[in-house]
Specification:
Layout: E1 39-44, E2 49-52, E3 55-58, H1 61-66, E4 74-78, E5 84-88, E6 96-99, E7 105-110, H2 113-123
Antiparallel strand pairs: 1-2, 1-7, 3-6, 4-5
């Protein structure tokens, strides 16, 4: 019998290679309610920069499933600038803000940048002389 050709296939060298698609899904890292009048700041630890965090509007999935009856009538809504306007409550769509997360960044709520620097120094992130 020739060693180069054999009648039986060599089962040790037969491999099935399949590419499996990985399921990607968003997982909730955490949620934070910001105090009224506070701003959410984005602190980049590597570059040592401070900017206001950017948000994207999205609809929460539980609001679709809940089918909650909306109150009917008129109400008062305040804008970010503090101006009041009278609105019909039926027309307001529920929306949630979602932070656009960036690499090497931490997010902290503070009244202003001066207050944020105090919080960062207290936590040991930065050192002010």
């Amino acid at each position: 019998m020739n060693h180069l050709t054999s009648l039986k296939p060599n089962t040790d060298k037969v491999e099935n290679v399949r590419q499996v698609q990985q399921e990607t899904s968003e997982t909730l890292i955490g949620s934070k309610r910001i105090h009224k009048g506070h701003t959410l700041f984005e602190v980049n630890v590597k570059e040592q920069t401070i900017v206001e965090a950017q948000f994207e509007e999205c609809e929460a999935s539980y609001e679709k499933a809940a089918n909650i009856d909306k109150p009917k009538g008129f109400g008062v809504q305040t804008n970010r600038t503090g101006t009041l306007k009278r609105v019909i409550l039926d027309a307001i769509e529920p929306s949630r803000k979602k932070v656009i997360k960036k690499e090497n960044c931490i997010y902290i709520s503070a009244l202003n940048k001066k207050n944020l620097l105090k919080k960062l120094e207290k936590r040991g992130v930065i050192k002010i002389n």
